[in-house]
Amino acid sequence: MATVDVTVMGAGIFGLTIAYVCASRGAAVRVIDPRGVGAGSSGGFVGALAPHTPERWDSKKNFQLESLLSAEKFWAGVDGISGSQSGYGRIGRLQPIDDDHTLMLARERIDQAKELWRGQAEWNVCSVDDFAGWVPPSKTGLVVYDTLAGRLNPAGALASLAGAVQKLSVEISPSGAQEGPVIWATGYEGLLELSQLLDKPAGNGVKGQATLFDYDAGSVPQLFVGGLHFVPHENGKLAVGSTSERYFDSPDQTDEQLDQMIERARVAMPILRDVQVVGRWAAVRPRAKSRAPILGPYPGREGQFLANGGFKIGFAMAPKIAHVMADLVLDGVDNIPDDFRVEASL
Ligand SMILES: Cc1cc2nc3c(=O)[nH]c(=O)nc-3n(C[C@H](O)[C@H](O)[C@H](O)COP(=O)(O)OP(=O)(O)OC[C@H]3O[C@@H](n4cnc5c(N)ncnc54)[C@H](O)[C@@H]3O)c2cc1C
User: Fold this and answer.
1) Contact between residue 158 and residue 13 where contact means Cβ atoms under 8 Å apart
2) Which of 138, 175, 221, 344 could pair with 92 as two cysteines, CB 3.0-4.6 Å apart?
3) For 25-83, how does the pLDDT look when each residue is reduced to its tens digit (9 = 90+)?
4) Residue 136 lies in a domain
């Protein structure tokens, strides 16, 4: 007789949030990962929970909105059980407005946010003077300030999740029997395996590199400047990311591309000019061909499922993905958006 109801392959953010929700609903869960918790792309330190712009709305943006809005309660629940800190905070985000065109778009989005974000978060145009000290340089003296963006500390969040699931009697081990429905949350290697099995590309890996500055920005919004996320963490460090590399030799080594990114960060935020770098990190993001998450039954594998394709917003999507996967696997209720089905990525 099986000793668990569900087996989850992969102990990244997808695997552990799914294990957490399934166990919270009373299922006996086993998580198997030969490399341990956070060994893949979830084990870093950026943790920007950054919303899409409120325009050209689609199911992916709506799903992400619902996930972001649920994040505070979700992470409070995880931290409450584990007794440790995910580092979650809904800190908002500032982006510079450097020209008239950007200003026009930013102003249009004020009303679009009211409608599409359903009054639960705001998109504002503000003066840099409203944010003393910690504000991106802006040629118009104006910035976008949204109140939906959040942050968490990826390593802290994974440790908190691992603690919470273990308190819910989930077994995390490097090997073991696959019993009950099996959910494959195995990151970019899982996408490569799927592509090989189907003999067509379903997705691949996109390497990213990020850095950590020894800079305590205090209780301030995160910034998005020059294509980089500047994320102030509760531990007094500032994470900045990330590079985006389709072609790479070494999945987890940092190199001169990170040096160049650090220089760009110092130019974008001159306050960091002499601040010491205390962390360098690289990993490979799972990118589905559709660029959306891939959720649902595993093609050709009876009783098996996929949860993958978090790409650049895996942490933002994870709480809602975990609920949708638990609905499907435990209750047979299919709440997966059509754009996220496996077929959409083939
Ligand atoms: C530099 C960088 C910065 C990022 N910044 C952000 C950000 O600011 N905000 C955000 O939301 N997202 C960000 N992301 C993306 C985010 O990290 C990913 O979307 C997310 O981590 C994907 O989680 P996952 O659980 O699907 O995969 P992973 O974390 O990669 O986990 C997959 C796990 O599966 C295991 N595994 C592989 N094969 C097997 C097997 N056969 N059996 C069992 N286990 C297996 C691996 O060991 C690994 O632990 C960033 C990514 C990178 C690289």
Assistant:
1) yes
2) 221
3) 999 999 999 999 999 999 999 999 999 999 999 998 999 999 999 999 999 999 999 99
4) no
On whether residue 313 sits in a domain, the answer given is yes
**The residue count for the chain:** 346
Dist. CA 141–CA 97, nearest whole Å: 8
Closest ligand 1 atom number to CA of residue 308: 26
Number of domains making up the chain: 1
Q: Cα 339–341–343 angle (5° rounding)?
A: 100
Q: Is 0.90 topped by the overall pTM?
A: yes
8 lines ligand 1 (CB under 6 A): no
Helix (H) or strand (E) run with residue 142 in it: strand 142-146
Whether cis (ω within 30° of 0) applies to the bond prior to 127 is no
Residue 315 Cβ < 6 Å to ligand 1: yes
Answer yes or no: is 320 within a domain: yes
Evaluate: CB of 203 within 6 angstroms of ligand 1. no
Regarding the beta carbon of 39 and ligand 1, being less than 6 Å apart is answered yes
Range of the domain at 46: 6-87+151-202+289-345
Residue 225 counted as domain residue? no
Listed in sequence order, the DSSP H helices in the chain are 13-24, 59-82, 100-116, 154-167, 187-198, 256-268, 314-331
- Rg of the chain over CA atoms, in angstroms? 20
